[in-house]
Amino acid sequence: MSSNGPEPGGEVLLELSGITKRYGPNVCLNDVGFQIRKGEVVGLLGDNGAGKSTLVKIMSGVVRADAGAFAWRGEKLTAPTRQDTEKLGIETIFQDSALVPSLTITRNIFMGRELTNRLGLLKLRAMDRIAGDILDSVVTIEGIKSPRQLVSSLSGGQQQAVAIARAVHFKRSLLVLDEPTSALAVRATEALLAYLTRLKGEGVSSVLVTHNLHHAYEVCDRHIVMNHGRKILDTTREQTSVKELTAAVVEGETGLRRHRESLITERK
Ligand SMILES: Nc1ncnc2c1ncn2[C@@H]1O[C@H](COP(=O)(O)OP(=O)(O)OP(=O)(O)O)[C@@H](O)[C@H]1O
């Protein structure tokens, strides 16, 4: 195993190494490195303030690391911006999904990537149809009547579904989802998790940030656990358990050590 985690399977899409980020005296990320491979679903786990969202922002080019390297398909990029990462095919759903409340669901889904005809006019009906299809197939969310509804009229969970729909429609290579299910009801959550598994079959990778370790264990091929800005675990699903992930998230390295000692004792 390398310091960047296990290396089974497909082509490496994204590789971060030695990522360090400080906010004033606070070291928010300390020498963090990992790889995301093609068709992999990776859980990014950790307690509040562990550094997950900051890593997501660095992966998507919203925040610049103070040190470390970012490589995409083996090619190093210096301080990529959000536009750069979008061009590479990285699509991110942030915790605060940044929708425009005064616009319709459709306009939010297609924002900045509107369909137009040869004269440059918006193809509104086509966009409405696609928006409706995505909402039906990806996050079967209750209570959305029409893609022409204004986002301001939606609940928190419904808005989250729209943000997810936007990201998955423009899926290309890597989807990064920062706590996408926190406001979703059970059925919508299950639909989204099933969708991530389906995308994997199409070779699309995902990084899932979540506090729900059971969800993570269910859908992720690999798990990365962060603790106080450091990566303390990078392991495959086969090599871990919900118990180990819980110990690592809740108690950090001490918990991991205790968990491993308890396994040894059980085997004796
Ligand atoms: N813009 C910022 N300015 C100052 N400190 C920040 C900033 N962004 C994050 N931090 C600090 O960095 C640390 C990691 O924050 P981050 O949001 O990445 O954690 P997280 O693992 O996503 O937590 P949560 O699960 O609570 O969302 C925290 O101590 C946080 O206060």
UniProtKB/TrEMBL annotation:
Domain ABC transporter per the UniProt entry, residue ranges: 14-253
Keywords: ATP-binding, Nucleotide-binding
Gene3D superfamilies: P-loop containing nucleotide triphosphate hydrolases (3.40.50.300)
A molecular function (GO) term: ATP binding
Keyword Transmembrane helix: no
PROSITE patterns: ABC_TRANSPORTER_1, ABC_TRANSPORTER_2
Protein name as catalogued: Monosaccharide ABC transporter ATP-binding protein (CUT2 family)
Record organism: Nonomuraea polychroma
